[in-house]
Design goal:
about 210 residues; mainly beta
Length: about 210
């Protein structure tokens, strides 16, 4: 209850498998894994990353003052533990955090010679009161603002039709990134030498 809004929760999880006696045995466990925000852990989903590789998928919000963001974490059974084998953004949106000059395009709040201090006689300055209006943002300023906008959504699945112990990840990304429309499909393979999926550059549109 005392957790700050940016503080993650802690997740404990166990994966169970049938044992030889007809009961259940712990195949892998995860203790104290940080996820979520406000001290509340994000809920995991049980998925398969291969014919015999159960895993947990966690869609967790990420604390950021620059944007609204969530990440997908994939935790697979390696030995007796659950280990992160992939992480990529599921949601990115900064359009509420940037103003694109709109806040400066209205009436100025700073009094000028033509905009006397509150309570002063507007006729004392020798001319009628004329509120000062800030200039609208230029085309170059608007273009720069558009180039900073992000609004991306990501969907993923494991390709269960593929052969091998680890199924590739199929990632679809759509939306807006740095002034460009984005609609692309990626296929990410598992790298045994790294013990994780190769990194997906989901911000390529900003390069």
């Amino acid at each position: 209850d005392d957790a700050g809004s940016d503080e993650p929760g802690l997740l404990d999880a166990w994966l169970l498998r049938p044992d030889a006696q007809g009961g259940l045995a712990v195949a892998a466990q995860l203790l104290g894994h940080p996820s979520g925000l406000g001290g509340i852990a994000a809920a995991p989903t049980l998925v398969q990353l291969g014919p015999d590789i159960p895993a947990l998928a966690i869609d967790t919000p990420v604390a950021s003052s620059q944007m609204s963001r969530s990440d997908i974490q994939l935790l697979a059974t390696l030995g007796s533990g659950l280990v992160e084998v992939a992480r990529f953004p599921s949601h990115l949106d900064n359009r509420l955090q940037i103003t694109c000059g709109a806040a400066d395009a209205g009436q100025s709040e700073t009094p000028t010679a033509a905009d006397p201090m509150p309570g002063a006689d507007p006729l004392a300055a020798g001319e009628p009161h004329q509120p000062s209006i800030a200039a609208a943002p230029s085309q170059a300023e608007l273009a720069d603002c558009d180039a900073r906008e992000l609004g991306l959504a990501t969907r993923w699945s494991a390709d269960s039709q593929a052969e091998g112990d680890w199924w590739p990840l199929l990632i679809t990304q759509t939306g807006l990134a740095c002034g460009s429309a984005v609609a692309r499909n990626l296929r990410i393979s598992y790298d045994p030498s790294l013990r994780r999926y190769t990194s997906a550059d989901l911000m390529e549109a900003c390069r």
